[in-house]
Automatic annotation (TrEMBL):
<dbReference type="Pfam" id="PF24061">
    <property type="entry name" value="LBD_receptor"/>
</dbReference>
<feature type="domain" description="Putative ionotropic receptor ligand binding">
    <location>
        <begin position="149"/>
        <end position="210"/>
    </location>
</feature>
<keyword id="KW-1133">Transmembrane helix</keyword>
<keyword id="KW-1003">Cell membrane</keyword>
<feature type="transmembrane region" description="Helical">
    <location>
        <begin position="623"/>
        <end position="647"/>
    </location>
</feature>
<keyword id="KW-0812">Transmembrane</keyword>
<keyword id="KW-0732">Signal</keyword>
<dbReference type="InterPro" id="IPR056198">
    <property type="entry name" value="LBD_receptor"/>
</dbReference>
<keyword id="KW-0472">Membrane</keyword>
<feature type="transmembrane region" description="Helical">
    <location>
        <begin position="408"/>
        <end position="428"/>
    </location>
</feature>
<feature type="transmembrane region" description="Helical">
    <location>
        <begin position="434"/>
        <end position="460"/>
    </location>
</feature>
<dbReference type="InterPro" id="IPR052192">
    <property type="entry name" value="Insect_Ionotropic_Sensory_Rcpt"/>
</dbReference>
<protein>
    <recommendedName>
        <fullName>Putative ionotropic receptor ligand binding domain-containing protein</fullName>
    </recommendedName>
</protein>
<keyword id="KW-0675">Receptor</keyword>
<dbReference type="GO" id="GO:0005886">
    <property type="term" value="C:plasma membrane"/>
</dbReference>
<feature type="transmembrane region" description="Helical">
    <location>
        <begin position="369"/>
        <end position="396"/>
    </location>
</feature>
<keyword id="KW-0325">Glycoprotein</keyword>
Length: 663
């Protein structure tokens, strides 16, 4: 047997046992006396109570059933027992009945997971309503959208009754319960009246209880027998219904009432400034929802420092203060559920997935003066240089044997370099063996020159970068400073070494966009921020920062709207969000936001109108630097020669081996 069915059967059996025990003891149950005279007149309306409850209560098909919770008073009156008996003797058994007593704590309700569809509360006056509401709200079966019937167990004069009905409706309205019907026996009669209010009646906006309306009257009367007409005596209901005069309590459209929304400016969900909301995914979504429901969105912008503060249950200055105090109906701005919001607020179904990640400055361009050298690795360059010098040594030796040119090794080295670069060289040997060597050296030069220039084009036209910091470990090792919203700090409350380090050095940013803009100038700065916001923020270009990959997220979450607890419009809002998501509008709005972002970005100065890369001086500055170094060395050598020549003449030095290389 499933837990729900077991709970219903158990509650039904307990109710029957209680009923049988009281019937056997007649006027007393334990030490509690039963005054039949006081309840005799109330007993006459029990059939009408049952009949009208059948009308108001929601129940699914008979096989599934529906849960009804009946709160009884702390006495054992025959009136209450007859009500329980009428529910238990229902031949259709469409509803499972759970009997509650507000004086007793419900120790464990985890075995009942079905949301209650109906509530019946028996009270003497409005002051007794707080206790059962407090108890019911703590149960997992609590459902503010259920049908609630409140029954006064004492007769009241019309003036007192109106005051009591307003008190009951207001108490339940403060707990977000609007489907309420209040039953009372008309003073000094056997007529049962049902009173209620219609939150959106006559252009109302469910903000106060203006008019209370009589919607039903019922009397259970005995028909006298008439022997002449051959009519036997019987009981029958006399009813009068007024419900159709006022329409449903929660209608389909809502009179263009204001839907009060609190939000922070948080792209791409909400775009604008503190004085004006422009657009955004959630703004466009709410525009669609409110247009469909005939509501008017009214936005209240939360200051940035409050939106990024640590999330608390503070109902004065905390992030959720406006919704907790019911000054606003909804909160948006890329929000997600957390333990505090689950306790204090309600949430819509999620419609977007975002994550909290680290963003750092993008790696800088590697020095361009190395462009002409990085084509080959160090070993390739060393081998090439060795070949040039080795070939020069061979050519020098060949020239010495042939005696064709009276040149030094430097001249021969230049000839070897010319051969290796496949350019003209002033060396014409006579011997065939030397010519074959030069032919082979020439083919080497052709291959080397082709390889060098082909790779040079790609290196010059493709930007190179330094190593990109892409993990928290790399950032810590590089000495980065970590910052972000105060609300992010709880994510580092973990025992591992990295979390402890982050919590120790973390710096709180009251305004996240200002901290994000620091990435332009601070090379050792990491900011914890929403990935969606970072890629859409106006404070920094997307190409100016790098956000860690999803595998290194701080936290991944589903974005939803947060509403005041048990908001009565939440089911309709959820239904429209589901339709918007299924229709693909969210994806369309997101792509439009990304397109705007691309259109606003500037073009690369290095790319021409035809898409070709335009080379600047800094692309080949390495070659100029190398030439400048050569000129500098030659200048130093020239000055050295002058100094040596001047000193030799002044001090009359003898000729030596150095003269061969200098003079």
């Amino acid at each position: 047997m499933c837990p729900q069915v077991g709970a219903r059967v158990t509650s039904t059996i307990l109710s029957l046992l209680l009923l049988l025990a009281i019937i056997e003891t007649h006027r007393t149950v334990g030490d509690i006396p039963v005054d039949d005279d006081d309840n005799e007149q109330l007993l006459t309306v029990v059939p009408c109570i049952r009949r009208l409850c059948e009308k108001y209560f929601h129940s699914d098909r008979a096989m599934k059933g529906s849960l009804a919770i009946i709160n009884i008073k702390p006495d054992a009156s025959a009136f209450q027992l007859n009500i329980l008996k009428s529910f238990n003797e229902d031949a259709r058994h469409e509803m499972g009945v759970m009997v509650k007593d507000a004086r007793k704590k419900h120790w464990n309700a985890s075995h009942v997971t079905e949301k209650a569809k109906n509530y019946l509360m028996l009270i003497g006056d409005s002051s007794e309503l707080a206790a059962p509401i407090h108890q019911l709200r703590r149960l997992p079966t609590w459902n503010p959208l259920a049908q609630v019937v409140v029954l006064f167990t004492s007769e009241m004069t019309p003036l007192v009754f109106e005051i009591e009905v307003r008190n009951v409706l207001q108490e339940l309205f403060d707990n977000s319960v609007l489907n309420v019907n209040v039953m009372v026996q008309r003073y000094n009669t056997s007529v049962l009246e049902v009173w209620t209010w219609f939150p959106y009646e006559s252009g109302g906006c469910a903000d106060n209880i203006d008019q209370i309306r009589l919607v039903d009257e019922c009397e259970y009367v005995e028909v006298e027998p008439d022997e002449e007409a051959n009519v036997r005596g019987s009981w029958m209901f006399r009813e009068r219904h007024h419900f159709s005069d006022f329409g449903p309590k929660i209608p389909k459209y809502y009179n263009y009432c204001p839907l009060k929304i609190s939000t922070s400016i948080w792209e791409p969900f909400v775009v604008g400034n503190e004085s004006h909301i422009e657009k955004g995914l959630e703004v466009l979504m709410l525009d669609t929802i409110t247009a469909r429901m005939r509501l008017v969105p009214v936005y209240n912008v939360i200051e940035a420092s409050r939106a990024t503060a640590r999330i608390t249950a503070d109902n004065q200055t905390g992030l959720y203060a406006d919704v907790i105090q019911r000054r606003t109906d909804l909160m948006i701005g890329g929000l997600y559920e957390n333990p505090i919001s689950r306790k204090l607020l309600s949430a819509t179904i999620p419609y977007y997935q975002d994550d909290l990640t680290w963003c750092v400055p993008t790696a800088r361009h590697a020095p361009k003066w190395l462009n002409v050298f990085i084509i080959f690795n160090i070993w390739t360059w060393l081998i090439a240089i060795f070949i040039i010098f080795a070939a020069a040594a061979l050519i020098y030796r060949f020239n010495y044997v042939e005696g064709l040119y009276r040149e030094n090794y430097t001249w021969v080295l230049l000839q070897s370099l010319a051969f290796s670069l496949s350019v003209y060289a002033h060396y014409w040997p006579r011997r065939v063996s030397i010519r074959f060597f030069l032919i082979g050296y020439m083919f080497y030069g052709l291959h080397w020159n082709a390889a060098y220039h082909s790779f040079l084009i790609s290196v010059l036209t493709r930007p190179r970068y330094e190593m990109q910091i892409a993990t928290v470990e790399q950032a810590i090792e590089a000495g980065f400073r970590f910052s972000g919203a105060e609300s992010t700090l709880p994510h580092f409350d973990k025992p591992d070494a990295i979390s402890r380090h982050l919590a120790a050095v973390y710096r709180v940013c009251p305004r996240m966009d200002e901290c994000l803009a620091l990435l332009r100038t601070e090379r050792l700065q990491a900011v914890a921020i929403s990935r969606a916001h970072s890629s859409n923020s106006r404070s920094i270009g997307e190409a100016e920062m790098y956000c860690f990959p999803k595998t290194d997220n701080i936290y991944t979450y589903s974005v939803s709207m947060l509403a005041k607890k048990d908001f009565h419009l939440l089911p309709k809002v959820n239904d429209l969000i589901r339709r918007i998501s299924e229709s693909g509008l969210l994806g369309k709005w997101q792509k439009e936001s990304e397109k705007i972002r691309i259109d606003e970005g500037g073009e690369d100065d290095n790319v021409g109108a035809d898409g070709q890369t335009i080379l600047r001086l800094d692309h080949i500055e390495g070659a100029f630097l190398l030439g400048a170094v050569g000129l500098g060395l030659s200048l130093v050598a020239f000055v050295g020669e002058l100094v040596y020549y001047w000193a030799k003449r002044k001090y009359r030095w003898r000729n030596n081996l150095l003269d061969r290389w200098i003079c």
